[in-house]
Design brief:
Blueprint lengths: L1 E6 L4 E8 L3 E9 L1 H4 L7 H22 L9 E7 L3 H18 L3 E5 H8 L10 E6 L4 E8 L2 E7 L5 H12 L5 H9 L24 H15 L10 H29 L4 E4 L6 H9 L6 E2 L10 H13 L19
Helix pairs in contact: 2-3, 4-10, 5-6, 5-7, 6-8, 8-9
């Protein structure tokens, strides 16, 4: 059972061939980091153009590496939302064309379900489970009721966790993406040097908010700069502040995940998305006592890739969830049904 997975929701063109949902035969990714780095974030129009340039070559590379012809595929899985609609259309249109030309079944995959399934390759998940998906565009908590069935438990009310990292990094001139840079610097600092307060949210206690933390970093930085020029990458006080910033983000993620897991009686916790590759987050999870198993994807499958889409596609295939060729790209596609 071989599935080709195609991912193009944001700024990476990716394709992979996976056999029986667990055996990864290939994974190819074309990164657009160099294109967007100078702007400090993803420029949607440029992202779409880069996908157009890369999609044919990346799919061909994935098939050749897997020693697989289009005729050998049992299905093609493709991200159809959420994401940048122009980027989504490139991967979705190409997947549809291949399916139409070769008579291959099409499976539309939700981007966040792809991230969740990436942490569960070869895992027999016990339900109900809680999934925390944290990335540059998303910070969500989902109750996993059964395979393919989700209920929204909480979400960010403003910035996503990864977005907060990127904005703080841009503020300090540390480059894009901000997550890896801040994670590396935070390891050298004192995480309790600066006291950042947690947001007081009314209503759903499983929701997140990171805009206040970002503003607190801005105010701290403005006050620091009044004292003279400094290099954020080497200034001890700034490194301590970044360690404190990361500590606060991680505490927010894990505290709210722990509360939600207890509320639903979760038998497992899944942590995925680009932020799941964060060293500090993984160490904080290990340091805590959890009453259930905690699953992370391998770091290479944490960021956007074709493997997660193929694996999620296999899950959909088992459930008989196929898509028609009029499947639409949806920028704000909900996961919970």
């Amino acid at each position: 059972m071989r599935i080709l997975g195609i991912e193009s929701s944001c700024d990476e063109t990716a394709a992979a061939v996976v056999e029986d949902g667990t055996k990864i035969l290939s994974s190819s990714v074309a990164s657009q980091l160099d294109v967007h780095q100078k702007y400090g974030g993803v420029v949607p129009e440029l992202a779409s153009r880069e996908h157009v340039r890369a999609i044919v070559l990346i799919v061909r590379e994935a098939l050749e590496t897997a020693n697989t012809r289009l005729e050998d595929l049992d299905a093609i899985a493709v991200t159809h939302g959420p994401g940048l609609v122009g980027s989504l259309l490139v991967g979705l249109t190409y997947a549809k064309a291949l399916c139409f030309a070769k008579g291959i079944p099409l499976i539309g995959v939700h981007h966040l379900e792809g991230h969740i399934r990436a942490a569960l390759i070869g895992i027999d998940l016990q339900y109900p489970a809680l999934a925390l998906v944290a990335s540059g565009g998303h910070t969500h908590l989902f109750e996993c009721l059964s395979e393919g069935e989700y209920r929204l438990e909480g979400r960010t009310r403003d910035d996503a966790a990864g977005e907060a990292y990127d904005k703080v990094s841009k503020l300090l001139g540390l480059g894009y993406p901000g997550g890896p840079v801040i994670d590396a610097l935070a390891a050298k600092g004192n995480p309790r040097a600066v006291k950042f307060t947690s947001p007081k949210l009314k209503g759903n206690l499983s929701d997140f908010s990171f805009s206040g933390l970002k503003t607190a970093v801005l105010r701290w930085t403005e006050a620091r700069r009044l004292r003279g020029d400094f290099d954020p990458a080497t200034d001890p006080e700034t490194i301590d502040m970044l360690a404190s910033f990361q500590y606060t983000v991680i505490e927010e993620l894990l505290n709210r995940a722990a509360r939600a897991a207890q509320n639903i009686g979760a038998k497992a916790l899944v942590i995925s998305g680009g932020v799941a590759s964060n060293r500090g987050l993984r160490e904080a999870v290990k340091a805590r006592q959890w009453p259930m198993p905690v699953y992370f994807p391998e770091p290479r499958w944490s960021t956007d890739n074709g493997v997660m889409i193929a694996v999620a596609g296999y899950s959909r295939w088992k459930l008989g969830h196929f898509s028609k060729l009029d499947l639409k790209a949806q920028a704000n596609l909900p996961l919970a049904r």
